[in-house]
Amino acid sequence: MNKSSSQAQSETATPSKNGLLNSLKARLVVSALLLILVLLPLIGFTLNDAFKQQVKSAAKNELSAYLYSVLAVTEVDNNRLLMPELLVENQFNVIQSGLYALISTPDKTQGIPAKHLLWQSNSFLASETPQHLPHPATGQSEFGEILLEGKPHIIYSFSASFEQRQNQQFPITIHIIKDQADFQLQIDKFTRQLWTWLLILMALLGIVQLAWLLWTLKPLAKFKQELNDVEQGRAMQLGADYPTELQAVARQLNTLLNTEQNQRKRYRNALSDLAHSLKTPLAVIQSQKDLSLGSFEQISVINKIIGHQLKRAQSAAGSSWHLGVKVSSVSEKLVRTLGKIYRVPEIEITESVDSEAIFKGDESDLTEILGNLLDNACKAAKSKVLLSVTSSDIQLNIAIEDDGQGVSPEQQSQIFERGIRADSYSQGHGIGLAIVRDLIDSYNGKLSVSSSEKLGGAKFEISFRWGQKNND
């Protein structure tokens, strides 16, 4: 399908680059969440690991104390190990108490095999002897883990040597073994408490961060609201009660607004003076009796152009500071008026207008845009004209279709030029579409013509993107 626009532009607009992280609020929220979700768990893992090391160190010290209490009552006489029947620590005397003492030989000694179990506490009597017991060097100790009957235990081993007659040595290794259950219970309890408090802390920090965020962004929210008030025509300037960082911005914007308003006033006055100074000579020329019909029509066209440019100077086109008008209210008036004008032949004008669609500009400009296009469509149509309007927060789309002969591809590239008129229009001076194009351009809009798929005639499409230019 062939299409042409007011400046031979393509249909596709440059996609918006606005993303989530382009929002200052989103950046602050993401930063706060990352701080909470990364830093606090990291602290939790660090504290948990530190507590495990502390428990491990405490367990080592506990087993070391037990070992030295056993070593204190250990005697060797004539290469025989002598141990008391009961130990001071009662857990060594209770079967399956979870605390065990073993003594073995690290090396082959006086006919005793290496790594042979010499003695075990009463608490170990019903247990299986471990397959591999550590045997550190004499005078050294070793702390680690061992499986005992399929359960994890911690073991602390220390090697010593007893001197016998004729400088003979009797080396032994004392092993203290304890069930890990008690230590693991401490770790599990601490871990649960730690993560419970960390979760509570994360929730509290989240609430504090939210309150801090709202308090920090409150001036920006106020700044945005005041900008919106200026845009909607409820205020002329921004306030001055802002933090230091925003005061300069507000002051510069107010200066810009004042300058823009003064320039527009001077522009309006200059064009108004020019229009009025031209109208009188034109009226004198037009009153001449010997004026030809062609000259009279051209002077009428000049008057119309002067009136149009005067209205443009008085309107707010080209500026984003508009209260805005509802498209439906303007379109309904135009449809009623055109319905009376084009009663014969019968023309059916159908509206499909978004009731919330807003034109952020001057009502007279919208009236002229829709009026010209609807008038042309009624002239070209056989019986049907369709007006469709859709909108979003940043865009307004208008389409006007008819069931006439349409606009040929050759005319589509020329129809927006001044003085050019489609053959299907039986009336007009050819400046209507040029005026429409100028008005749409002044709002950075886009105008294109194509063939209507619904009605078969011409289809004129207009799009406005508020807050940015249509980059085609």
TrEMBL record:
Key words, A-Z: ATP-binding, Kinase, Membrane, Nucleotide-binding, Phosphoprotein, Transferase, Transmembrane, Transmembrane helix
One Pfam family hit: HATPase_c
InterPro entries according to UniProt: HATPase_C_sf (IPR036890), HATPase_dom (IPR003594), His_kinase_dom (IPR005467), PhoQ/CarS-like_HATPase (IPR058619), Sig_transdc_His_kin-like_C (IPR004358), TCS_sensor_his_kinase (IPR050428)
Compartments, as annotated in UniProt: Membrane
PROSITE patterns in the cross-refs: HIS_KIN
The keyword Transferase is annotated on this UniProt entry: yes
Membrane-crossing segments per the record: 28-47, 194-215
GO molecular function list: ATP binding; protein histidine kinase activity
BP GO terms, sorted: phosphorelay signal transduction system
Residue span, Histidine kinase domain: 273-468
Enzyme Commission code: 2.7.13.3
Catalytic activity: ATP + protein L-histidine = ADP + protein N-phospho-L-histidine
Domain of life: Bacteria
GO CC terms in record: plasma membrane
SMART domains (UniProt xref): HATPase_c
Protein name from the UniProt record: histidine kinase
Organism name: Shewanella canadensis
